[in-house]
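Before relying on records like the one below, remember that each one covers exactly one chain. Contacts with other chains, cofactors or solvent are not represented anywhere in the record.
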Amino acid sequence: MSPTPELTQKALAERGFRGFVPFRELGDSGVRAEPGIYVVLRTSTELPSFLFRSPAGHLKGRDPSVTTGELGGAWVDGATIIYIGKASAGSEGRRGLRKRLDEYRRHGAGGMAGHWGGRYIWQLADSDTLLVAWMPILERDPGAAEAELIAEFMELYRARPFANRNKGVASC
């Protein structure tokens, strides 16, 4: 993916991302069970307010909450993308974007779902306004596509997206 001046909703749509819906609308958005990458966007570029405690579900007894200092330190001024993720097809080819995004949504709603990555988004006071968009990746490894988009973000902003705690890996 070639760098653009900004990684905006418009630029992502031009690349083939679809959806741009709040998590609560994912069930009616036509997300299919195919491998791909996804992004979480915050439409406001104003500084956010952080919740002291995360409403997200605990995973294996771990509290998803981090300090507001950690959240503030991870914030990327001016960026609208706050998380980049990937979804593999799984060993039987039935996981994909639909399953992975549903896990992410359920985790944020306090459920026991296996989506620990990106948990910082749930401590944003305006997390209910965040948008999620996705793009199927059928011809190559979604992990490589995720790592490339994170690298592009880092080239533009000199930091990882707010809720990404790693740089992505080329395997799912």
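The first helix runs from residue 9 to 15.
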